[in-house]
Amino acid sequence: MCRMTVTLSDVAREAGVSLATASRAINGSSNRTVRPELRDKVLAAAHRLRYSPDANAQAMARGRTTALGLVVHDIADPYFSMIVSGVTAAAERAGLMVTLASTDRDPERELAFVDLMQRQRARAIIVAGGRTDDADANTTLADALAEYSSHGGGVAVVGQALLGVDTVTIENEASTSELATKLHGLGYRRFAILAGPQGHLTARARFNGFRDGLAALGVTIDDARVVHCAFTRDGGFEGMSELVSRGLISAGGAGPVDAVFAVNDVMAVGAMAAARAAGLSVPGDVGIAGFDDIITLRDITPSLTTIRLPLADIGALVTELALSPARAEPRIVPVDGEVIVRDSTPRRG
């Protein structure tokens, strides 16, 4: 014998209230409340009839679903996967489910995802990743996020404070300046930089901080020792190969370069692989340092000198901002990096 599905109309009839009142009592409402005695009647009727409310109906009645949209540049990059882990843990504690988009740094894909989350009435959107110097793209994304926020959605960003929303910023320049000072103190004097892609604001800030930190110590880096390359492992491999082909790194550390700074860890890992492919030793022939302290470094030999960021904590922090009540002025929360010296840059005699 088939059991008939109990509907919300059945519950309303059983409780002796209108369908609208039954809906507000069970599903909630973004702008109307139900008197406690009526809510108790409706809930008691629902229990008697074994009514199961529809989760989507509950969320839509409250104005927002239980989804949290998260946009990252490249989920294959451990930097982003560690931030994702922090976001998902914080979202779970808040009773939310994360919808993830990996955009491969395509501004159009970012915009499409924001539009999708708005149409699906997601509770909040988080955008993680540095911006570029494309002012039009930044303005367009800022406008889309403002439109989403105006309808009650929460928004927060990890990166540069350019989008007019709550932002967790990374102290890139101060951290790389400190790294330059540390390496100089270890005896390194002849530096090259794998500077990432031109126009990428995070890469630029890290490059500037490192260069300026050395300049304060009287060390300059000429253009021949700077290679712009993709913000990836393969970019680091290609960039390091170019330094080797220019004759800047040679066996015994006697070449024009004795240390290479890559503006993120995955590039540094690629640089180490390129050095080995060229028959060079790290750190015997050249020291290498990175930035981020991604979890993958646990398996890298020699262990990589880097700047540690609390990436999972950053994910939790940006989630907290996205889910907290909006304020008249965006909140800017800076996060410092910590220089970690490891085997890839031992002290030079």
TrEMBL record:
Gene3D superfamilies referenced in this protein's UniProt entry, alphabetically: 3.40.50.2300, lambda repressor-like DNA-binding domains (1.10.260.40)
Molecular function in Gene Ontology: DNA-binding transcription factor activity; transcription cis-regulatory region binding
Ranges where the HTH lacI-type domain occurs: 6-62
InterPro entries given in the database record: HTH_LacI (IPR000843), LacI/GalR-like_sensor (IPR046335), Lambda_DNA-bd_dom_sf (IPR010982), Peripla_BP_I (IPR028082)
The keyword Phosphoprotein is annotated on this UniProt entry: no
SUPFAM superfamilies: lambda repressor-like DNA-binding domains (SSF47413), Periplasmic binding protein-like I (SSF53822)
Annotated keywords: DNA-binding, Transcription, Transcription regulation
The keyword tRNA processing appears for this protein: no
Protein's name in the database: Transcriptional regulator, LacI family
